[in-house]
UniProtKB/TrEMBL annotation:
Pfam families per UniProt: DUF5719
InterPro entries: DUF5719 (IPR043777)
Name of the protein this chain belongs to: Large extracellular alpha-helical protein
Transmembrane helix in keyword set: yes
Residue spans crossing the bilayer: 12-38
Origin species: Microbacterium foliorum
Keyword Membrane: yes
UniProt keyword annotations, A-Z: Membrane, Transmembrane, Transmembrane helix
């Protein structure tokens, strides 16, 4: 029996040793398997790169300039003060024009919708600008504005509800369905209003009906159902004398780095010491803005101003400390802000004023339509670190002009009224068109062409 026990003990020990070895091998195999690369099976979904067809280029013009208060028995009635002169051209020929009815004008009126049809897979370049010169007992001055696409979200930065100001927010719906438009006024008085703009029509809302009592009103415009074109029509009367008119385009959104070309400071007269001011507002958060002013044609800084901003509260900065002349204003902020510059020719009757809006960056060919008006000039600004050469050429034929714009500087050239130009730079630029004469001021920025359609990935 003792031999049998010894045999069994030896067998049991062998089994234990063998089990330990096998278990250890399993542990090593698991560790190695976890860290080692294993073959994988990958299934890639079928996909295709597709470039959507671009839509037609559609521009909306402002149409007739409105007069309000001409009938003492009906002071809120709006009538046509005059129809503008239109200059337009496109890369694919003459655009189709459709009238948009202004039902709220007592004697009737209309604006124009311009459509450049797609050719092949490319949307055509199209540019149009309106201008009007007024010399009536209640309205005097020059107003000009480009025709622009409609938008579902935009901001009116300028405007006034002070005594003598008659400002109207003109809303144009070029679509085939009605648009519900919400207007929200920001400033010392905050208010909102909703209006319905019927399909293919235009209507206007007095700024005083929305922002009465507000010192520096700004208005956020949002549209549902159909996008609208929003423009601020402004007029000013001092005592009983007209003192200017203007058409101010809306901006699409606040910016952290805004460039405003074509600002002019005039000799101050009488009580017009603040004839040129920068209006600013940060809609969403407190901000610190820096306003930098450069003389036209120079990279040297003529003035720098630090402006603290409280969220939702507009403020203004006077540029009266600077010498009279032509300037570019830049606004840089740590958060997106709204900005515009108001320039006033003088403080007397039959003077004029104009709002200067930020000019977006242009890095491709655009068309610039110059309407009827005095002494038009194209102002070009280069904020980059390298020099830029800009070619300016009439689309109907003529010798091109090459304009060299030094890094961080600006330049301007004379252009002809009632002419459309092709403008193309060797690098990004900002540009505005200005018109200046006694009792006549107008400034408006050039906008990039409609963006090219980008490819998208489609998964069946």
């Amino acid at each position: 029996m003792s031999g049998t026990r010894a045999f069994r003990a030896a067998a049991t020990g062998a089994r234990l040793v063998t089990g330990a070895i096998v278990a250890g091998a399993c542990v090593v195999a698991v560790v190695f398997g976890v860290t080692a690369s294993w073959p994988s099976v990958e299934h890639k979904p079928a996909s295709a790169e597709v470039t959507p067809l671009p839509g037609d280029t559609v521009l909306v013009c402002n149409g007739d300039f409105r007069a309000i208060g001409r009938d003492p028995a009906n002071p809120f009635q709006m009538v046509t003060a005059g129809s503008p002169a239109l200059s337009a051209a496109g890369s694919s020929g003459t655009a189709d024009s459709t009238p948009l009815v202004a039902d709220d004008l007592a004697e009737g009126g209309s604006a124009q919708r311009l459509v450049g049809e797609v050719e092949g897979r490319e949307a055509p370049l199209l540019a149009a600008t309106e201008s009007i010169s007024l010399a009536a007992e209640d309205l005097s001055g020059l107003a000009a504005a480009p025709c622009r696409p409609a938008s579902q979200d935009s901001w009116i930065v300028g405007g006034s509800v002070q005594t003598g100001a008659e400002d109207l927010i003109v809303l144009t719906n070029p679509g085939v369905v009605p648009s519900t438009v919400t207007l929200v006024a920001h400033g010392s008085v905050r208010a909102s209003r909703t209006v319905i703009v019927p399909a293919e029509s235009q209507s206007a809302v007095p700024l005083t009906s929305l922002a009465a009592g507000s010192d520096l009103p700004m208005v956020h415009v949002t549209a549902t159902g159909s996008p609208v074109r929003a423009v601020l029509q402004s007029s000013l009367t001092r005592t009983l004398d007209p003192a200017g008119v203007d058409l101010q385009d809306a901006v699409s959104a606040p910016q952290q780095h805004a460039v405003l070309p074509g600002v002019r400071l005039f000799e101050t007269q009488g009580d017009s010491g603040d004839s040129t001011v920068v209006r600013l507002m940060s809609p969403d958060a407190d901000a610190q803005a820096v306003v930098t002013v450069n003389a036209l044609g120079s990279a040297a800084i003529a003035g720098t101003f630090d402006v603290p901003l409280t969220a939702g509260t507009p403020t203004e900065l006077s540029l009266s400390a600077l010498s009279p002349g032509e300037y570019t204003v830049r606004v840089d902020s740590d958060t997106p802000v709204l900005s515009a510059v108001r320039q006033q020719e003088g403080g007397g009757p039959r003077d004029d004023f104009a709002w200067v809006m930020p000019a977006p960056e242009i890095d491709d060919e655009v068309l610039a339509a110059v309407p009827l008006g005095p002494a038009p000039r194209l102002v070009l600004v280069n904020t980059a670190d390298a020099d830029v050469t800009v070619q300016v050429e009439p689309v109907t034929g003529g010798d091109p002009i090459d304009v060299d714009v030094a890094a961080g500087s600006s330049s301007s050239i004379e252009v002809r009224p009632r002419t459309v130009y092709s403008v193309k730079g060797s690098g990004p630029i900002h540009a505005s068109v200005t018109m200046t004469d006694t009792g006549a001021l107008a400034v408006w920025p050039l906008w990039p062409a409609a963006g090219t359609q980008q490819s998208i990935t489609v998964y069946p």
